[in-house]
Hints:
Layout: H1 4-7, H2 10-24, E1 28-34, E2 39-44, H3 50-57, E3 62-65, E4 80-90, E5 93-104, H4 115-164, H5 169-180
Antiparallel strand pairs: 1-2, 1-5, 3-4, 4-5
Helix pairs in contact: 4-5
Amino acid sequence: MKLLPKLLKRxxxxxxxxxxxxxxxxxxxxxxxxxxSRTVLGQAGSPPTEDVLFNVGNADAVCDCRQHDTGSESxxxxxxxxxxxxxxxxxxxxxxxxxxxxxxxxxxSASGKGPDTGKAFVQHLAQSLEAIIAREMTxxxxxxxxxxxxxxxxLVQSSVVNLNHSxxxxxxxxxxxxxxx
Length: 181
């Protein structure tokens, strides 16, 4: 299901994440990943490569390692990367993930904001994105219901025009059957 890109537009999502990023401090990044299409829908900061993000995004957990950007254990001793991945749900379906993290030699230490301090904020951000997804699904559902009702009204209107020409039972039945095809 490639629903998430239709619900959360890239321009909105990027702006939304950029506005939230300063709360996490220096060295932080935020990324929203689409589960179905394996694409990055929006990002703020400087996240690791997409391959790393999708490995972390599928974990639904906290990842703490030095391999994310360098691909080896030979990263500088003070280099650190910490990621938190939270699923974005609609009802029982996982549509994507919000990945937040710190990277660099001072990852998470800027302004005293570390992974523990930012975890509550990232959880709140994921909940707000889920609320936006639910709102967009409600809007789509209402639009579909309105369209269905419009089609029913148009069908009745068309039937009334045809029925006004003849009041014979056979003609009325045939007209109604033609309208239902």
